[in-house]
Amino acid sequence: MTLGRDPRSPAGPLARLRAAAESRERAGLRRRLRPRTGDHDGLIDLASNDYLGLSRDPRLIEGAAAAAREYGTGSTGSRLVTGTTALHAELDRRLAAFTGSAAGLVFSSGFLANLGAVTALAGSGDLVVSDQVNHASIVDACRLSRARVAIVPHRDVAAVERALAERDEEHALVVTDAVFSVDGDLAPLAELHRVVRAHGALLMIDEAHALGVVGDGGRGAAHAAGLAGEPDVVLTLTLSKSLGAQGGAVLGAPEVADALVDTGRSMIFDTGLNPPALGAALAALDVLEAEPGLPALARDRARRMSGIAAGLGLETTEDPAAAVVPVVLGEPEAAVRAAEICAEHGARVGCFRPPSVPKGRACLRLTARATVGEADLTTLREALSAVVRSTGRSLHT
Ligand code: PMP
């Protein structure tokens, strides 16, 4: 027995977790779950990923209810056993058609779609090239793939090209977010695709924050970059943001779908997506097709919001490509306090701290919605003005 260990105390392992939590508390890095009411506690929502305001749309609610009435509340099994209903097959097809892809497969989350896609497309003896600020689900997918992983600087196409050119591996996969989830900037997709094509690799693009917001009618960033349907492009997406539902998908060539059905562990060993989420997502696609101007509204609101932050001298993006607007404050405590001030002034905003962002780059993450109105923008201006006053920053730095 190692000195100092008490094998009879079940609290031993928990003491370590407690100590770690206390140290995160001291560093301003504790996270708390805050249950909200259906109306966001009366605050305006500038924090969710409900970019088109569809998550409470009566058409989606009816789509979800109708799907539950016909197929039940759960899918009852893996997609390979009983968990593929006619709604799964329909959404597979509809998402492929919407994004201009040959084939599609719905997963039960975007996280699992990324895990499935990367691990099915790359394995031991292959190379994966991944942007350094890609989403955590991509980071984990790269690790799980057992491929060699080259992390490249953010949006650095030359570094991607070097990694591909200098590789010993025959097969390579380049992975990127389309719209990066905290800074809201766009990946250089056309340039990445040129490099990927020149070096015989595959390009996987996570459209999570681009679908429904970027591109013609919200068809996504790959579509906007002219990459729809390219055989060496694979898309992943989530149904939980602009589509107001829940779930994810992988889109690409038929060979990609076949690989996922045969080897995609996060699909094979996971229960298929629940019918209400499918019904809601299908209804959301109907809404997008009927109202193709919605994505431009969300983008416009994002520009208005970043204009307000910039006008107050806050560090933000000049020209947001999608609906994500970061406001950088630096230290975690400053970001937490700023989010509290915004809530006190009526606006719920996101607050991101390390490890979600680099050290010294803690920020507020404002998200736009197509349904944000003038009164909401006034509330935001007042809230951010109060943040500026509290930090002692000049209004016109
Ligand atoms: N990719 C990106 C870029 C994301 O931001 C997210 C969600 N935060 C996901 C994937 C995961 O999607 P889901 O929430 O559907 O699991």
From TrEMBL:
Pathway: Cofactor biosynthesis; biotin biosynthesis
PROSITE patterns (alphabetical): AA_TRANSFER_CLASS_2
SUPFAM superfamilies for the chain: PLP-dependent transferases
Keywords: Acyltransferase, Biotin biosynthesis, Pyridoxal phosphate, Transferase
A family per Pfam: Aminotran_1_2
Domain Aminotransferase class I/classII large: 43-384
Chemical reaction(s) catalysed: 6-carboxyhexanoyl-[ACP] + L-alanine + H(+) = (8S)-8-amino-7-oxononanoate + holo-[ACP] + CO2
EC identifiers of the protein: 2.3.1.47
Enzyme class: transferase
GO molecular function, one term: 8-amino-7-oxononanoate synthase activity
Description of how the protein assembles with itself and partners: Homodimer.
Family: Belongs to the class-II pyridoxal-phosphate-dependent aminotransferase family. BioF subfamily.
Name of the protein in its database record: 8-amino-7-oxononanoate synthase
